[in-house]
């Protein structure tokens, strides 16, 4: 006898509601006939990753959680682009704006929230919008093609993501915030100011303690006026000041709302057979806006609807672990300083790491981490369990489990099975370990597909990898999962390079054809990579494919937001002379350069140069290209060393100039910056460069894999050498090994972390291997030519790239 299925209708095709349905199907796949209505014309997607779409790092299809096939495979009826407008609670039916009426036995309202739009004069002007949906992203991307200046009102996470997206789209952006710290709900003051500094370095301008008064302009916005009378110009204004539960449908149906849809501990509303989950729900006076609590709600609701015994949902301890424009941040619990609390703090300004744990009555009640969030999961477990820390060393609380020497599984081994590994999706250690054992999982991707852990922001991937190592032991291969070059191919970087060598491939299109590229044209990710690998393998014979380079490298100048270019001539070691300075100044005057700026690499940047003036300017300068645009050696920063400094013990300027002359024009997987310091005081910041050289008593120390960018990394000691010639030799070997084994786009900081400094040290200190690497470096450098000189001497290059064609 066939049991008639109950009818379950879900209003809202977002993350919270569909996650609850996904849980329900696993518990009881045959109990319900499921129908889902979504107002957007898309399947369920990850709203957390909208910023990646806006920034151009992902396409819409990349952030889809449940594709259309998932609905079909689970016999779910999906109605996209339809909004439910009426609920008949007596007949138990819902009706959409397209006139479709569907009956239900159980109804889940997951209507989410609406962005709050500040009701100020001018808010209805063209160019004023919210940032909440894929459509919003599309509008912002289209606007960036026409307009150059944006303002984001709101310094929370959503506002910062929107601002970073505008930067990537080539727009100038101001972030306006009413208080003097950004992300004040997730970070304390110290972490907030560190984040602000990192984002300012990326190019975001902050207008803090500003109260918006009026949006000015005609039909379209032209600026934002503040209550202090000042005005900021803008072609586009995005409001990201908060959300409000979307309860209009529920209110119309007589469901109690205050202000969200009031629910019990089992997510039941005031009307029988109607439930609510997600941002629209109000539980014990709280409406949650983070993903983890919404998934915790969904898990309880799914068990309740499945008839499985479960404890009630009693609320969530809020925590956030995410990456803001490349910066890792974490906060959890009550992290503010309050009466009766004490705090443990670690603040390393050099490495950009800040950690704070708040303690009350010998229990951790809150934490903030900036720059290094590895301890976040462990600290949240201690907060949840109210762990008594009276017997622990206080500094150990912030150091245990953090990338120490205990091995991959040392931290996760101490976690209990109910410890949350994936906060976004609420996946526990026990769930992951059971899936690994029961399903035979061996890779992070398999765990993701099976359990949803790491499916959202991806921040928990290292912990998932550690759990694989913990569960599988020696049989786990961290490198087992293939990391292909891009979606155009199933081949990894190593497979492609091996094929180029073994098959004698010599052109980008030949590689794609022979290796069966899915997209015969390739993409912006794989074409530049193939161009680099071909040149690296065969430097003497390969002809560079300029069409496979990004515009800056193709033009040999950095394009600016207004369509002009910047010109940075080579200044070896940051050392120049009056004649050279005078020539630069005269050329700047000759070509009406509006701005001349000193760079962080001790050079001069001529900004605002017209495309048609580039080759003439290069000829007038009579200086080589500084490669400020390329994946190549950028600069060698130096201090004055023993030449002038009373503390100097080594010739920093001499060594720096020699290094820069040796490696200028060298193509590398990513940009490379060097530095030479004439003593351990390290005035040239050698510790945070791709390769840093420091003079010490009796020789020179070489530091590898440093990075002074958004994610600061202090370089590892590679080796110590005695002579200046040794510096050149070891640098040749180091850079050539990086060229041959690095992935295209991978900075040395990532490369050193991936390969391990011990392995790299073994290679460069092996005399035979070092000599071979140096020989291959000689070959690579022997064929380089200055691109500016080539353009000056070639009318064809000038005609193809730099002449402006007048259209009649």
From TrEMBL:
UniProt-listed Pfam families: Fer2_BFD (PF04324), NIR_SIR (PF01077), NIR_SIR_ferr (PF03460), Pyr_redox_2 (PF07992), Rubredoxin_C (PF18267)
Limits of the Nitrite/sulphite reductase 4Fe-4S domain: 630-770
Cofactor(s) needed for function: [4Fe-4S] cluster; siroheme; FAD; [2Fe-2S] cluster
Key words of the record: 2Fe-2S, 4Fe-4S, FAD, Flavoprotein, Heme, Iron, Iron-sulfur, Metal-binding, Nitrate assimilation, Oxidoreductase
Keyword match Iron: yes
UniProt domain FAD/NAD(P)-binding: residue ranges: 7-283
Domain called BFD-like [2Fe-2S]-binding: residue spans: 420-469, 485-534
Family indicated by similarity: Belongs to the nitrite and sulfite reductase 4Fe-4S domain family.
Protein's recorded name: Nitrite reductase large subunit NirB
Recorded name of the encoding gene: nirB
